[in-house]
């Protein structure tokens, strides 16, 4: 069990330990160190210089290494100021605009000797490490996507980080500044993996039973599927993303396109479509998408029906482009037949558990039993509504996901909030050219 230690250290001693490598800031499940703009960093330093309290920093000792688990943005601000890379902002005093070396000796001492609290957890297991990260970030909308790495587990979070550095996510993806700050790259990787697992069950015996590609579904996938993947299994996803990264183009693919490209890359690999052929198709498709793709954009585009509508449109179009190579057939049926069958089975089991006496009595009344007729009608109604549109659960998830995206664009975190949204728009929906 983890042991908690509370320590008081000065800013200078803390920074010396960080620079010496005694505290690692390169932690797989942490978000990037670019969440704060220089103005926010300068205002944070201003608060410190006024003697205001700052939230404690949290570290954990895992496999003998001390990891910074909460406080990366504050640490980045400390280092930036100490290295004369940013100035104090918002102090409404003569300190405004000054860098560390421009301070008087007394003010430098005030910064160096400021005492802050560090909460250190020792003897932490891999499972506890992920739990600590998720717990620390609970209730912080700006960290929702980053929590996916916590659900995936510390070891597999390294895989996500590696994939986020691929050319597909760093060069071809056309993310807005807000999407970049809200870690859209992580979200796209996980959504792409969900689609691959849903239609190509190479790792599992059964295809992944997905509801949609909402944030809630992403969390479930990371916790229940990705966290159990071995390094060998993850290599298969890496090969897909490496293949997808071979396409040309420069920042032309919107956020919604990236998971679809990952899915299509898998189709191309199985069909032995060359990299050049795949590049040619995706580049063309990036400029002009199939009409059926456009029809499934707009509000609620994370729902299963809309997502399937988009990838089916691309799949069908891809088959027309290379009919001799892409000969596979995929089942894009979005109806909830399995759920209906389960409902019938459950209903049958309930009836089978009735006592023999009651069963005998009902034998003579089956034909006139209004409940049986009602059950049958309800099941039929469920099947029809599920087939014709998005289920109520999927619709709720889609609505929730859009809401989350909006909140992430505007919400602040008491200790390490995202940069101001300014005029950037939410990525709940995307306009297709």
UniProtKB/TrEMBL annotation:
Q: Which residues form the GmrSD restriction endonucleases N-terminal domain?
A: 28-130
Q: Identify the domain of life.
A: Bacteria
The annotated regions of Low complexity compositional bias extend over: 390-414
Q: Name one Pfam family in it.
A: GmrSD_N
The annotated regions of Basic and acidic residues compositional bias extend over 337-346
**PANTHER family associated with the record:** CHROMOSOME 16, WHOLE GENOME SHOTGUN SEQUENCE, DUF262 DOMAIN-CONTAINING PROTEIN
Q: What is the protein name given in its UniProt record? A: GmrSD restriction endonucleases N-terminal domain-containing protein
Organism, as annotated = Agathobacter rectalis
